[in-house]
Amino acid sequence: MTSSVKVALIQMTSSSEVDDNLAKAEKLIESAAAQGAQFIVLPESFALMEKYNGQKLEHVERDGQGKVQDWMSSLAKKLKLVLVGGTIAVESEIENKPYARCYVYQEDGSLLAHYDKIHLFDVSVKEGESYSESSNTLAGSEPVTFNWQGITFGCSVCYDLRFPELYRYYQTHNVDVILAPSAFTLATGKVHWKLLLQARAVENLAFVVAPNQTGTHDNQRKTFGHSMVIDPWGEVIDELQEDEGISIATLNINKIDMIKEKFPVHLHRKLMS
């Protein structure tokens, strides 16, 4: 098992133009790779931020084939790194209800894992700002873990952060790093983003890696930014502000065992589901 990994978070203001988003993301990924990043995570909806409800249905890909999947695979292989692709719309068994799927490609360009977002964003954020993700998205049903170089990762996306039972599952499966690519809104991000990330890290004694969308998108939706990496003690290792860009941090995986040895809260649980 490797004792550390250099991760990069990509923060974007994605638009409704897929080619423009991929070109922008590729430049940021290449810059992160040039700085030594081994494991790069894109935000939710990195390839398409809908300008109008249902636009993503025009860009649904089949599992295993499609422009965005091919782009992720080839870039991971070209740069010899792991690339986590936020979410894209991938065909499900129900017409016009694709999964919001997070793909993970490894250094040879092959698929390492994929996760379908479980909790869908059906909320009213404030007066005049509401969302109904389930109207054109099918929820996933299975937590997903994967192993890379002896490190265990657990997958989640954005709204999942509000449901701690998902992360308790990951804690019981000895996950070292929680991935949480997001498009967290400005209104909710101001009050809950950092709080939720720190809670998920502390209660499960894991690193949390959370790239976010940022700024005002061409659909006028506003996202919070502040992509960040949290360590198992709840400390912020690195944080971006509101601009697009890259956050790079080295995760010392041995820190998890050091904390567990001194503060073995994971052994003290009394109430199990």
From TrEMBL:
<dbReference type="InterPro" id="IPR003010">
    <property type="entry name" value="C-N_Hydrolase"/>
</dbReference>
<feature type="domain" description="CN hydrolase">
    <location>
        <begin position="5"/>
        <end position="253"/>
    </location>
</feature>
<keyword id="KW-0378">Hydrolase</keyword>
<keyword id="KW-0808">Transferase</keyword>
<dbReference type="Pfam" id="PF00795">
    <property type="entry name" value="CN_hydrolase"/>
</dbReference>
<keyword id="KW-0449">Lipoprotein</keyword>
<dbReference type="GO" id="GO:0016746">
    <property type="term" value="F:acyltransferase activity"/>
</dbReference>
<keyword id="KW-0012">Acyltransferase</keyword>
<dbReference type="GO" id="GO:0016811">
    <property type="term" value="F:hydrolase activity, acting on carbon-nitrogen (but not peptide) bonds, in linear amides"/>
</dbReference>
<dbReference type="InterPro" id="IPR045254">
    <property type="entry name" value="Nit1/2_C-N_Hydrolase"/>
</dbReference>
<protein>
    <submittedName>
        <fullName>Nitrilase/cyanide hydratase and apolipoprotein N-acyltransferase</fullName>
    </submittedName>
</protein>
<dbReference type="InterPro" id="IPR036526">
    <property type="entry name" value="C-N_Hydrolase_sf"/>
</dbReference>
